[in-house]
Structure prediction request, 224 residues.
Amino acid sequence: MLELYLDTADARQVARFNACLPIRGVTTNPSILAQSATGLKQLLPALAGSLGAEARFHVQVVSQSVEEMVNEAAELNRLPYDVVVKVPATESGLTAIRKIKALNHQVLATAIYCSHQGFLAALAGADYLAPYVNRIDMIGADGIGVVADLQLLIDRHHLPCKLLPASFKNTQQVMEVLKLGVGAITIPVDVAEQMLKHPAVPAAVSQFSREWHEAFGNRLSFQS
Prediction:
């Protein structure tokens, strides 16, 4: 089943969407946490309270060297949650991923901008790959195309990892990625809101209500 994540540090929005959608968990990054002025010690308990004990949280390291990233990953995995450690897919990041996987920790390779970068991260042992769809588009490349190529490579080489595309600005990007059969996806709150709305829906619902009341008054369906 597709793993659906929200890319946010807003616990109230997570609770809101979890009421109507099967949210697997939450993805964060240093920028999201910094902009919200919310640290993990405050955020993770609030999210777990909304999502339950089975929720999965993707948390990025902020260390720079291989040794520091590995040590930080070990500390993140001591937290009482299902944590996937996010590591940028750089040369030092891939080295850290291999060492972190040797400790049997879950890893997501993040900041992926091209298919060969993601493919190397998969070979290094990453459990998840996060191509940045809209950011790729913004540098003049094809974000959907990168996801398509990566999914093909994963399938062709039978690699035991999932794509978890990130960085979306509209619902079309999300739907095009989902058509490719990715195993996971993370969506920002504003795009999730777009997906729940359509300009034609309120008018249709209003018509249903008006015509029902004209025919049956305040009776409910089972009372008609």
In short: The chain has eleven helices and eight strands. The CA atoms of residues 63 and 69 lie 5 Å apart. The first strand starts at residue 3 and ends at 7.
